[in-house]
Amino acid sequence: MIAIVLIAIAAGAASALMFASLISGALISLLLFYLAPLPLMVAALGWGPLAATIGGIAAAAGLGAIFGLPYCIAFAMMVALPGWWLGHLALLGRPVAGATAGEAVEPAPPHIEWYPVGRVLLWVAAFAILTTTGALLTLGSDAETITATLRHGLLRVFTVATAADEQPSGDIERLVDWLVIFAPLAATLVAMVTLTLNLWLAGKVTQTSGRLHRPWPELRSTVLPPMTLVALLVALGLCFAGGTIAILAQIVTTALVIAYALVGFAVLHTLTLSLTSRSFWLAGTYVVVVVFAWPIVAVVALGITDALFGVRQRYLRSRPPPLPAS
Question: What per-residue confidence (pLDDT) applies to 180?
Fold first, then answer.
């Protein structure tokens, strides 16, 4: 127990330092800020959710004592809570009794049915929605106040950054107007990607060290619950309602769209199993999406198509892949 407490405190201290590094204003601090949940997730996957709980509480209390209550709350909501809960879900499993061939055959030993990866992905989306919504609500309680505060802050930043240039203020204002629209969506996207990446990295670290207490999941078979598509359609419709509801609906829509994009990549990993140049095509796809961004629409469409028509199941039934799963 003492070893777990020491590891938890070390993980919490690392997360707190990475989170607080943003105060320095250095460019590298932005990367450290987004990787702040990683130590707590490693502690949760390698030493259990209790370690992440102890580390998160200690780190939040330390940040609160040094920098004040807002930093304590922000760390707890953006780092400690996702790190603990996602680590807990990743290790959540239940025994399933083995099937029997007849009365004379003894039942096979039970195997563990682990919490589905698709549901973990939905929780990642929920945390992305929660953190983005919480950040926006600190700017105001209604859409007009949020928009005005965000616009004023961005306009001040761009005015200072371009003070030495001769760019007309009208161009800056038009750019800020666009950023005000897309800033909540971009924040949701970044939260989704960074939380997913942190959980994957934590799993790889604990697997490499031999501390991962579960087999590595088959990520290419990730499936979202059927009602996720219904929730996406409802959120998409509410985007046109106007006001605060529209802003919140846009955040939810963005999170669910990114979730289907990740499912779309899982579909690609399945459909390319029989290709000899599989690594080349997958790497090329990732590079194109990262560089040009807009091809993500096709990946999202692929994920939604698989949810509607079972593309992976049809493919695997008609053409079993000759290569082993990776």
Answer: 85
Across the strands, what pairs with 111?
96
Residues 6+ apart with CB under 8 A from 254: 184, 185, 188, 189, 192
Q: What is the CA radius of gyration of the chain?
A: 22
Q: Alpha carbon 83 to chain centroid distance?
A: 11
Q: Distance between CA 319 and CA 298 in Å, rounded?
A: 23
pLDDT at 54 over 70: yes
Whole-angstrom distance, CA of residue 103 vs CA of residue 100: 7
Element at 122 (helix H, strand E): helix 117-137
Average pLDDT over residues 29-41: 91
State how far the Cα of 4 lies from the Cα of 119, in Å rounded to an integer: 28
User: Residue 302: which residues within 8 A CB-CB, separation 6 or more?
Assistant: 264, 267, 268, 311
Residue whose tokens read 């799993």: 203
In residues, how long is the chain?
326
* 89, 120 contact by CB (below 8 A): yes
3-state DSSP percent of the chain in helix, strand and coil, to 5 = 75, 0, 20
Q: Is the pLDDT of residue 326 over 60?
A: no
Amino acid, res. 18 = M
- Average pLDDT for 41-55: 93
Residue 143 CB contacts under 8 Å (≥ 6 apart), including other chains = 242, 243, 244, 246, 247
Decide if pLDDT at 308 tops 90.
Answer: yes
Residue entry with tokens 């590891």: 7
Structure tokens at 295: 């091809």
Least confident of 1-10, 118-127, 317-326: 317-326
